[in-house]
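Example record

The entry below shows one chain as it appears in the dataset: sequence first, then structure tokens.
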Amino acid sequence: MPLIALTGGIASGKSTIARRLAEHGAVVIDADALVRELQQPGRPVLAAIAAEFGDGVLTASGELDRPALGALVFGDPDRLARLNGIVHPAVRTESQRRFREALDADPGAVVVYDVPLLAEARGTGEWDRVVVAHAPADIRITRLAEHRGMSETEARARVANQASDEERLKLADVVIDTSGTLEETLAQADALWGSLTS
């Protein structure tokens, strides 16, 4: 079972690649979806976040108030580190459980872990290959403004708050250049699939 980490900065085209690999038959495990699941009411992660940052990070219905939490931690390295200290270990444990589950279900499966914060949180130890979706920061900033309605200032802040392109590219076994057309990106994803299954 190849275990592939697929990473990339915000608006890098990583999700497009993950969808294409899923179309080919990969088992895709989405780290962002895991985080949202682990932060549901009644889960220990949400309780730990509320204990650390106060009930102001919860909505009236007891769910995580993401904008309120974001306002507390972004731009504050100490608080962000405390949040990551709660979330990252739980995500690591749950993702590894799901990797094992996928292998048990199909020993020949290709498992792709769609993980935006690999450089920040996970490292390269357990992967057969690390695939980096890469587009220069200026292209990603333009995409955030055009497709997600962010101001240029917001988009620049989001990009700056992640690992640098250099840090991500240092981890890469495979780089998919997503700065061109959608068709070019998909062709590279198809070639990757071929190399994983040949």
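Notes for this example: Residues 5 and 130 are 5 Å apart (CA to CA). Residues 77-105 form the longest helix (29 residues).
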